[in-house]
Specification:
The chain has 176 residues and is of the alpha+beta class. It has a single domain (34-167), classed as 2-Layer Sandwich (Beta-Lactamase). 27% of the residues lie in helices and 23% in strands. The protein has helices at residues 9-13, 39-45, 48-59, 81-87, 91-94, 111-123; strands spanning 64-68, 76-79, 127-134, 140-151, 157-167. It has a five-stranded antiparallel sheet, with helices on both faces. It is globular. The two termini are 31 Å apart. It comes from Triparma retinervis. This is PAS domain-containing protein. InterPro entries: PAS, PAS-like_dom_sf. Residues 70-164 form the PAS domain. Keywords: Chromophore, Flavoprotein, FMN.
């Protein structure tokens, strides 16, 4: 019997896409116009490996967001248009806000996942969690969230890239 293979979040999200996938959107047309840091400025600081990874993630055309690694409040500095539309908030309600806004008043429900996120931020390691989040209209959803530590040319973590996959909302521990 073959042992179960494990893959890093980084290798899974950075895997080569089939040729029928569209290229990375040109001119940053997939990025929120309300970004507090322009994407070209972000790209100018990243190492080549993380530029390639970020471009690959942008090819998926899915929801993602970015925050400064030095900002312990994890304020969203830029995000994909898909993130904004999927979350059901206006751009101005998301860009410049803490990501925990999506947890509403249910932060306690996500206590374990939030602890895992905090530990990963302190250790500068990529992490994956599933959170109970809420759209702008109050509807719950599961947020399968992968956070990737993006590094500069000196190998220092400079940004946290959150890649989101919407899944069924997690059940409370008593219902699982």
């Amino acid at each position: 019997m073959d042992p179960i293979k494990t893959f890093s979040i980084r290798s899974m999200l950075g895997a080569s896409l089939p040729p029928h996938y569209p290229e990375t959107p040109p001119n940053f047309e997939d990025v929120s116009l309300n970004s507090s840091v322009p994407l070209p400025e972000i790209y100018s600081t990243l190492c080549d490996e993380d530029i390639a990874l970020f471009n690959q993630i942008r090819r998926f055309r899915g929801p993602w967001l970015l925050s400064h690694s030095s900002d312990h409040d994890h304020v969203i500095v830029t995000a994909s248009n898909k993130f904004v539309s999927d979350m059901g908030y206006s751009e101005s309600e998301l860009i410049g806000e803490n990501c925990k806004k999506l947890q509403s008043s249910h932060v306690d429900f996500n206590k374990e996942s939030n602890a895992k996120l905090s530990a990963a931020f302190k250790a500068n390691t990529d992490v994956h969690v599933v959170l109970l989040n809420f759209k702008g209209d109050g509807r719950p959803f599961g947020n399968s969230l992968s956070i990737l530590m993006l590094r500069n040319k000196s190998n220092e973590v400079v940004y946290h890239l959150g890649v989101i996959k919407i899944v069924a909302p997690p059940l409370p521990p008593s219902a699982a």
